[in-house]
Amino acid sequence: MELSWTSLLPSLLAIIFAIVTRRVLLALIGGILLANIILFWPSVESMAQGTGWSSWSTLTDSSNMLVWFFTLGIGALFGVLEKGGTFKQFVQKLEQRQWVENKRRARMMTWVLGVVVFIESNVTIMIAGTTSRPLYDRLGISREKLAYIVDSTCAAICILIPLNAWGAFNLTLIAKQGVEEPLWVFIQSLGFSFYAIFAVLLALFVAWFDWNIGPMKAFERNAQPDRVSKHNWGDEGKSKPNYGKGTAVVLTSLLSLVVMVPAMLLVTGNGVLVKGDGTLSVFIAIYTALAIAIIGTQWVRKTGMFTIVKAALQGAWNILPLAVILWLSITLGGLTRDMGTGEFLASILDGSIQVWMLLPLIFVLAALTGFSIGSSWGTFAIMLPLAIPIAMSLDLPLAPFIAAAISGGIFGDHASPISDTTIIASMASGTEHIDHVRTQLPYALLAGGASIVAFAITGATIG
């Protein structure tokens, strides 16, 4: 279809409806319906067929099927760890050792988890959020603060340490543009990934100093410690319980996730990490961790297999709404790409723009695209083929242009209420989704503004 401002309407409808009503599912469904109306107007039959086909093809796509199953697998994993009791022992071990006895250490633990577990953004968010949540509840830290820290570290770190599917995906896009030595150019671009760098550093600052701005102030002020869950390990005449076995099961399960993803990327890539199948690698890693959790729970808790399977199914059922939201979000993202939303935004650029303005504009356009379609990956696919040829045609260094496109995609995805990572951060932290969006946005805008300034300075330097 011809590029038009109407291509923005489905995403705008979904975003505004989600913010106003807090009904993300209905917002996404409304966006999908409007996209098909615009695409197939005035044929009602084509609209209906388009809506059904776009939803069904997204649901049954082979790569997406792995995404659905590893999403449910994450739910099953934490269902076994939580209902089986080993996760509780892990938290109690932290309390017993007094490793996380105050708010600052709890926040720093979340930040460190987000940095260390760089395997895949959604998996990292689930691990960091689910592991930290009981500690935050006990100490009286708002779940909105937890959602912000996990969301601000996980996706950004996956870009800065690209030994994962993110790195393989972006490297493939860069190589397809005819870039010589694409791996080296991609590595160079990491130093210019200003939004990812600023977001991680800002989250570290917030975690250490408990800096609250905007709506976050009220949520932190209203957060109350859960005194009931705090254990008194110093009672006289009582020995400290031994939670070492349960802790070992949890740590082994989570460590297997970290180790298995790069290992499977090497296997599926025939020894070349960046050529591996990221989705399949994450899928195998999650179900390996699930198997370890099941066997470990039986060993530690002497729990029957029926109880463990029930816990796994309950965990998968609890996360099923997330899988549905992901399905609808991916469907809407595909439709907006078909409508040319990214290309329309990119068409704003023309030859009359000065060189120093190019990097900030690419960042802003990528941010608008990511915000509109709710997908950083989709934004990379749209913006990298635009940014790289611009740099080539002007004989400018490629790395800053690649970084501007990727950074803008991360920022837009980070701020968007229809982004899968934003939704998962809300669910992993146990907070209302729109509350997470509202409390996170001021921090994201701060890091985004600093990124625009940094890209402008970089543009002036290379121009």
From TrEMBL:
<keyword id="KW-1133">Transmembrane helix</keyword>
<feature type="transmembrane region" description="Helical">
    <location>
        <begin position="355"/>
        <end position="374"/>
    </location>
</feature>
<feature type="transmembrane region" description="Helical">
    <location>
        <begin position="248"/>
        <end position="268"/>
    </location>
</feature>
<feature type="transmembrane region" description="Helical">
    <location>
        <begin position="65"/>
        <end position="87"/>
    </location>
</feature>
<feature type="transmembrane region" description="Helical">
    <location>
        <begin position="443"/>
        <end position="462"/>
    </location>
</feature>
<dbReference type="Pfam" id="PF03553">
    <property type="entry name" value="Na_H_antiporter"/>
</dbReference>
<feature type="domain" description="Na+/H+ antiporter NhaC-like C-terminal">
    <location>
        <begin position="185"/>
        <end position="459"/>
    </location>
</feature>
<feature type="transmembrane region" description="Helical">
    <location>
        <begin position="380"/>
        <end position="406"/>
    </location>
</feature>
<feature type="transmembrane region" description="Helical">
    <location>
        <begin position="183"/>
        <end position="209"/>
    </location>
</feature>
<dbReference type="GO" id="GO:0005886">
    <property type="term" value="C:plasma membrane"/>
</dbReference>
<feature type="domain" description="Na+/H+ antiporter NhaC-like C-terminal">
    <location>
        <begin position="24"/>
        <end position="169"/>
    </location>
</feature>
<feature type="transmembrane region" description="Helical">
    <location>
        <begin position="315"/>
        <end position="335"/>
    </location>
</feature>
<feature type="transmembrane region" description="Helical">
    <location>
        <begin position="280"/>
        <end position="300"/>
    </location>
</feature>
<keyword id="KW-1003">Cell membrane</keyword>
<dbReference type="InterPro" id="IPR018461">
    <property type="entry name" value="Na/H_Antiport_NhaC-like_C"/>
</dbReference>
<feature type="transmembrane region" description="Helical">
    <location>
        <begin position="12"/>
        <end position="41"/>
    </location>
</feature>
<feature type="transmembrane region" description="Helical">
    <location>
        <begin position="108"/>
        <end position="128"/>
    </location>
</feature>
<keyword id="KW-0472">Membrane</keyword>
<keyword id="KW-0812">Transmembrane</keyword>
<protein>
    <submittedName>
        <fullName>Sodium:proton antiporter</fullName>
    </submittedName>
</protein>
